[in-house]
Design brief:
single chain, four-stranded antiparallel β-sheet, alpha+beta
């Protein structure tokens, strides 16, 4: 037996979180009966599951992609304001979605897949997958600020987990730092740098665990190679 939302994600329809929303909103039926409560379990070998009237089946061959996201794109499948999304940059027949987010003004490495179950796990902070960013910030970042980031800073209603931080360069009253975090809260790096008095001028993600941008130029994408896929699956 398998939880319904996990099964939907394994069919490549969407992430597990979005699958839960589909269930709660009454878009999912099992053997013709609408299910709108989480926790329902099914037998994938016997039960017929439909989402918005279409039968779904478990997917075996998943797609894994990395994109060098330019600024000026939103990390969603669709945007209510009509802005360009990262999917506008990737022309494939499979229905994929981003693993996590990069905000509109942030560039760099973004992973996308139709493997909803793996995506759900990769986004969970308990797995401690570090994402590394290059941040250009205002002012000279001193050792005191670096230590605060390494210890954890208070943002809104939470304290961040310790970050790995290294000062790369200081020039023209701007500092370049590499900062690695495994959490993924909204605009977290920008808020962390604000908290130590160094607002971000530009931000680029350069790696996701062992996966980096390679030689991808802004707007370019490629399928993950076997080593990169194995890293993601090994982590889980």
């Amino acid at each position: 037996m398998e939880r319904l939302q996990k099964y939907i994600a394994s069919c490549g329809i969407t992430s597990r979180r979005k699958a839960e929303e589909l269930i709660l909103n009454g878009h999912v039926k099992v053997n013709g009966i609408t299910i709108n409560e989480l926790g329902t379990k099914i037998d994938p070998g016997k039960d017929i599951v439909t989402v918005s009237g279409k039968r779904i089946t478990e997917k075996k061959d998943f797609v894994y992609i990395k994109l060098n996201k330019p600024t000026g794109y939103v990390t969603t499948v669709k945007d209510q304001f009509g802005r360009k999304t990262v999917l506008d940059l990737i022309d494939i027949k499979e229905r994929i979605y981003p693993i996590g987010r990069l905000d509109y003004s942030t560039s760099g490495l973004l992973l996308l897949t139709d493997d909803g179950e793996l995506a759900n796990k990769l986004m969970h902070p308990k797995y401690h997958i570090y994402k590394t960013y290059t941040a250009t910030v205002k002012g000279q970042v001193g050792e005191r600020s670096l230590q605060k980031l390494r210890t954890g800073v208070h943002i809104e209603d939470y304290t961040t987990s310790p970050a790995k931080v290294k000062l790369i360069e200081f020039k023209n009253n701007k500092s370049v730092v590499h900062i690695s975090i495994y959490e993924g809260k909204n605009r977290q790096v920008r808020k962390m740098m604000d908290a130590v008095g160094h607002p971000v001028l530009s931000l680029k993600r350069i790696s996701f665990g062992e996966i980096d941008l390679s030689d991808l130029k802004p707007g370019e994408w490629s399928y993950l190679n076997n080593d990169e896929i194995n890293f993601l699956k090994k982590e889980k």
